[in-house]
């Protein structure tokens, strides 16, 4: 765990320094557009050991700059670079015991595998898989895959994500998932 925190602190600080000019420009642009709620959005999220912290994000999702604006949380220790997606406090999924074993992350296995055609491509299952099997090598692989995943997704969040999930499995005989819809299958004598 100490190696992961060292990676978060070192790489998070470097990324924050590199992103600072872009973030300052984006914050100025948001401020000039005079949003009603200010430049940053602050929403309570659940983190490590169930602790609640206010997650601040730049009030724009354009070009995914809201993710870069969360880098101070990585340096501070509220977030990790890699981990399950941070969820708002009070949501049932945020209360799952396995979610509270690690810090939530800026990116994670669910984010880089989201548009995969794997049958288990459900964000919660991927996040749980990460929590159960995380190690520094997996973190480095996820970090390396993140830019390509963001580029594939473009500006739209979650484009191409499979809509057939394991939790939607219908075990009734004669029902098949086709093109993300449950349809009666052909009768088998």
UniProtKB/TrEMBL annotation:
Q: Which family does it belong to?
A: Belongs to the bacterial sugar transferase family.
Give me the ranges of the annotated region Disordered: 154-189
Keywords (alphabetical) are: Transferase
Bacterial sugar transferase domain ranges (all copies): 61-149
Coiled coil regions in record: none
Pfam families from the xrefs? Bac_transf
Q: What protein am I looking at?
A: Sugar transferase
Identify the PANTHER family for this entry: COLANIC BIOSYNTHESIS UDP-GLUCOSE LIPID CARRIER TRANSFERASE, SLL5057 PROTEIN
Which ranges does the record mark as transmembrane? none
Gene Ontology MF, one: phosphotransferase activity, for other substituted phosphate groups
